[in-house]
Amino acid sequence: MTVGVDIGAKTGGQRAIFDLEELLATRLLVQGNSGSGKSHLLRRLLEQSAPWVQQCVIDPEGDFVTLADRHGHVVVDAAGSERDLALIAQRVRQHRVSVVVNLEGLDVDRQMRAAGVFLNGLFDAERDHWYPMLVVVDEAQLFAPAASGDADEEARRVSLAAMTNLMCRGRKRGLAGVIATQRLAKLAKNVAAEASNFLMGRTFLDIDMARAADLLGMERRQAETFRNLDRGTFVALGPAIGRKPEPVKIGGVETAGRGGSPKLLPLPDKPAEDAAELIFRPAAPGETVQRREAAPVSTADILGQLARARPEPAPEPEAPDLFAGAEREAALDAVMASLMDDPDTAFQTVSVLYQDFLVRCRIARVPGDPPDLPWFRARIATARAGVDDKPADESGWEQAQLVASALPEDIRGVFLLVARAALTKAPCPGDLAIARAYGTRSTGRARRLLAYMEERGFLLCATDLRGNRIVSLPDLGWQTAPGNPEATAAE
Questions:
Q1: 112 in the same domain as 43
Q2: How many domains is the chain partitioned into structurally?
Q3: Domain edge (last residue) among 285, 309, 333
Q4: DSSP 6
Q5: 75, 208, 220, 419: least surrounded by Cβ within 10 Å?
Q6: Are residues 348 and 428 in the same domain?
Q7: Model-level pTM?
Q8: First vs last Cα of the chain: how many Å apart?
Q9: pLDDT tens digit sequence for 86-133
Q10: Per residue in 381-426, pLDDT tens?
Q11: Is the C-alpha dihedral spanning 342, 346, 349, 354 positive or negative?
């Protein structure tokens, strides 16, 4: 199932739709000068995708905390210790709660360190918690600067390393980076280079226009386009939105930031002497200079909010166990079938497919807790081999499944593929069919799998005078018909 996120309208009036699953795999870079509409764009993307995917927003100015009221995001005020932030990040991934990390009120060094610690906490989560998450970083040039400046070198190193991990290695952990920057020249190249989708807004400096044109594959003479863009209009390109650069007008949003654009107001009508008296009057007793500081929030308070955001349902002993019932099995079968309909499924890693499977289960509202990774690994192995359906001889097939259970989970599907051919006296599958059942295109890997099972006594391979392969299964007493090892997968 493809989830489309509407971010606005193209020039011809067609809707600009982001393929959310493709975005999770290919990441996004947003660039535009201050006032070009980057925050509005990010807010539109977050609001439209909130029902479908977990989100984390690194918010240096506190603009996105209003998402909490409308979409249930938990606001994490980064005023605690580094250990607290790392613990909260791990709990966020564990409980799949969308959060806004509010860095407002911290100086630049502390913002960089807090962002780095939190991103590292998300990145270092246990493998069982690698659920898909959209990680949005506003003002990314603060956390991944191209050059060292006045910031503390240690804070810069931690922040830059975390941002690099997010964009370069985060995909396998389910983390999809969406970064927004005012200037590409200020952003570290290793971070910017990993994005495959781009939304380029208004900019005026020649170096930024030229770099934006290069990223979008435009000619240098077309770089002037970025100088003439209206506010809220971006040139979009990428596998998640379109294969050619097209201007996109960002649509409206449901929530609003706490800042906003400055509005002109008439000056107060006061005589000059009154204004001077207001400014230069002596300080009143107890009057102090107001400083903006973030109020400290304890880890216990944040963890309590996380727990309340996703409450566990109260146990009902008398209610039927939906997860173990026929309804649950039918729903899981339908989700697995939809997953196998994707032609790329045969050649993706199990961890990537498992994350895709969990997203599809959530969209299909499968009742109960989702299946664990070992269950999915065994199920996907048999599904790839196409041996989910039982043959007519069910007793013999149950014996074959019992023998296969002694093999590693990722090889069982290959064994059952050969066993089905032997049970039905069909020709032995070719190398391409065996490779596809294992999730690879390598015929050499297929031959090594057969050799591995032969060394352990699960099967015996022989070749007839015509070069066809015959496989015998000693434990079952079955044997395949001769089959061409070089046959295509369909044959």
A1: yes
A2: 3
A3: 309
A4: E
A5: 220
A6: no
A7: 0.56
A8: 29
A9: 889 999 998 999 999 998 888 888 899 999 999 999 998 888 888 899
A10: 777 666 655 555 566 778 888 888 888 877 888 888 888 888 888 8
A11: positive
